[in-house]
């Protein structure tokens, strides 16, 4: 499952540690929410970075106190049709000001890349190789966005205001 | 009419390009049907019994003549020469080929028409009063807010994969022609004591397997807070709506399970955290949208012009005028309802030829504007009263002057088993037979306003729950049967109909409806007591007795 | 005519076929014995046991590119051995709508 970050396929520095299995001696690890919450300090005490896979059926509230120490928050799309992680992503970015890597995992397909970027994801555990390779091209599909999210893209409503002001200013 | 600008057009074109790519990848096998189905639904493409069905959006039911002609073109070029207007102010084509859809969409995009989100688990067409902007007594044009909402909900990154579909409706008149109480979010535009524009917000209305009338969640949300408040509702729904059972996934179920107070509290908690954020609408932005709605340059015209006085001698014209012509907020003008319910015809259909002719008529008499109503009829919103006689002749020539608007033969029906793969029974032939039984206009006028709604299955696309008479098709041992309800209403006094008794066979439905109507005529307190009021006064029992006495 | 989209268990009550819609244009098609699709009901492979029905459906569903929405539908075999639709829904799918179209094409 190729990881796409910064618009291209990259190596994943995080190792996914399955529940019950021992953690690798060093390096960054990605663990389940349950495992993380059992003993977050122990995980942070390790030399590598800590990442958490947060289920889409659980409020992000319990994760919030740890956000500034996490290397990755991975949210889940069990099927691409289950859109709960979009809300979680926006809350993490826009309300809780999470600045670390926000990774989309699960059934991550090409036709949702733009939505995911807009919601605040910046890393994608892409299901199909072809989709991962098409990432840079796919995210250019849209140049117009009607609603504001935390991604900083100007909305259509405000772009119109800009155009109007520059027209009336004779520019 | 809202004028699309470069920005709006760009988005529609980008969407067409995306769908073209998705269709290509589907037909090459790169996308499986499981991956593609939701994508095609998000572009209004269903699979029906015989073929794909293509549902095109008509935002808040407003069309220009240019757009209507392009719909006629799509019907001819890509379909079988006709289209069907729906209970959500959209149009459907029934014989479309997937491979040709991107081209059809590109043709529509040229005139600012799209099919975004007319299906799928996202936010659907924002519907409104088909008399918006011209109805007497309207507080302000609800379409301005419908357009603001349309833009806000289009390709919203957070809400494109909801637990289930989500429908909005807005009204700005005392008489609710938009049926806001049976929508997921219903908005009643009004002014507070300080004269500021805002909305009573209702949530959790909807029909189908578990019908509910919407409940007020907040009596007044200021216009500037509309989008942030809606976002709060949708975020609560997106996170907590059920995803384990498609029959329990609508927001109405969440509202019912939590209770309106707890649901309102959840929304309020969310809203308080974001109400002053980027979604707060400033006056400038609202005025910009308002400024892109153009209104006709109405002339100063008399209420009773000579043309009209003379034409009153013609009984056929008068029959149409007294039925289909409605008061306009500007003196000397009228709103004309166009019935798509000809005797013996499938309700809500129009041929490509009729669409083209109507576009010409709209250019000549209605400043190039046409409206679509959820009753599956059309309207011309800006008719000078002096033009009524000429207009009538022109409409009559193309079969669009049946004087049965709001009467017993003005039936709302879903496509049913003739078209739809979800259906248990046919609905159109029932509607056709009923129009034949009640073809006599004097009889229909004697009966008065009576809304019959027919659904071919429990999904209730015909809105049978809120029909004065509701007919629901069910299947028993391979045969078509129909449950009959009475006393439903879709307006500001919205109510669900009550079952009158055991289901009746296909061949008996028309007889049963005639019996119900006969019972009403015998029982009504006065000629002007409407059917639905007689039912309210007397209950279901007298009707049940009458219908089932000999069955 | 309860929508076969709600079929959960596969249990057939008599001779049955598998039918679907052609992916590129949505046309009604029937699964043949030769692992192909035909627009003619007369070409349909007939199954008479639940096991055979399940197998035919599985093989049909595997052709994700050629067809969508495959399901098992009842048929009747008349005295001459001709296959006829087994319910109103399949009748309508084969013969078209039961109402006059607004425009006869």
General description of the model:
The complex is a heterotrimer of chains A (171), B (551) and C (105). Chain A has 171 residues and is of the alpha/beta class. In chain A, 31% of the residues lie in helices and 20% in strands. In chain A, helix 3 (84-95) links the parallel strand 6 and strand 7. The model of chain A has no long low-confidence stretch (mean pLDDT 94). Chain B folds into four domains: 6-109, Sulfite Reductase Hemoprotein, domain 2; 134-291, Sulfite Reductase Hemoprotein, domain 1 (2-Layer Sandwich); 306-397, Alpha-Beta Complex (Sulfite Reductase Hemoprotein, domain 2), CATH 3.90.480.20; 412-548, Sulfite Reductase Hemoprotein, domain 1 (2-Layer Sandwich), CATH 3.30.413. In chain B, 36% of the residues lie in helices and 18% in strands. In chain B, strands 16, 17, 18, 19, 20 and 21 form a six-stranded mixed sheet that branches. In chain B, strands 1-2-5-4-13 form a five-stranded antiparallel sheet. In chain B, helix 1 runs antiparallel to helix 4 and helix 3 (65-78) packs antiparallel against helix 4 (101-109). The relative contact order of chain B is 0.10. In chain C, strand 2 and strand 3 (37-38) form a beta hairpin. Chain C is globular, with a radius of gyration of 14 Å. The relative contact order of chain C is 0.23. The model of chain C has no long low-confidence stretch (mean pLDDT 90). Chains A and B meet through helix 3, helix 4 and helix 7 of A and helix 1, helix 2, helix 5, helix 6 and helix 9 of B.
